[in-house]
Specification:
By secondary structure, the protein is an alpha/beta fold. It has eight helices and five strands.
């Protein structure tokens, strides 16, 4: 039969042994591994942020080069600095980016064929896709007053009605040559959010034509806003 005092001494020695070992041989703590942030996928971003990124990659601020009446040729090709490869990332990115690429950049309509041969800054690189042409909402077109057009005035309204931007640059080969017949189709355009007319025509007539294109009324406009201004324009 064991002695109770001896048993209590043994149990006390066993219980205190781990504390003594820890005290004699302290453990070395391992350095903590930094927690890396989880990567955020592009499509997981809010739509507003995705659109901001796409606009930085797919829109340009290169101005359309305007010319005077003696410069009848198209502008030289200019680099726009775009990154369209982002459209290859996914189907969803392609759909969202395509709307921004074609809907928020200014494209030049052909002087004779309008949007059938529309291009950005290089006349040799036209937009051939019907789907892409349908997305374009911002236009710049040059209208020559001393030549017959290859399109009907009904075609002008069909193409430019309800555009976000329509800039009409009017020019002539020489001062006082040609009338306003080439602009008749633009006089009937309606619902343009922002219209700008400039070039070889009086200022009051240009402002009147802008007001016509930005209007919502269906009634046809007569005259050219201020014929007396037209007469005084050539007398200066």
């Amino acid at each position: 039969m064991s002695d109770p005092a001896t048993t209590e001494t043994i149990e006390h020695s066993i219980d205190s042994a781990p504390d003594q070992l820890v005290h004699r041989y302290p453990t070395r703590s391992l350095p903590s591994t930094p927690t890396l942030p989880m990567p955020v996928l592009f499509l997981e971003l809010p739509g507003e942020i995705r659109n901001q990124i796409l606009r930085l990659l797919l829109t340009h601020k290169t101005p359309i080069v305007t010319r005077n009446a003696h410069q009848l040729g198209p502008p030289k090709p200019t680099s726009m600095g775009l990154s369209p490869n982002i459209l290859l990332a996914s189907k969803r990115t392609h759909a969202e980016g395509l709307t921004i690429l074609y809907g928020e950049n200014v494209f030049q309509a052909h002087p004779s064929y309008l949007t059938s041969m529309i291009f950005a800054l290089d006349p040799a690189r036209t937009v051939n896709s019907t789907v892409c042409r349908g997305l374009i909402r911002r236009f710049h077109v040059r209208v020559r007053l001393d030549c017959d057009t290859f399109y009907q005035k009904e075609d002008v309204r069909k193409v430019f009605d309800g555009a976000d931007l329509l800039e009409v640059e009017v020019f002539r080969s020489s001062w006082g040559v040609g009338g306003y017949e080439a602009l008749e189709g633009y006089r009937d355009v309606r619902g343009v959010r922002k219209a700008r007319v400039h070039g070889s025509l009086p200022t009051l007539t240009a402002r009147w034509l802008e007001a016509c294109m930005e209007g919502d009324g269906e009634e046809a406009a007569d005259g050219w806003g201020c014929e007396e201004d037209e007469e005084g324009y050539w007398d200066r």
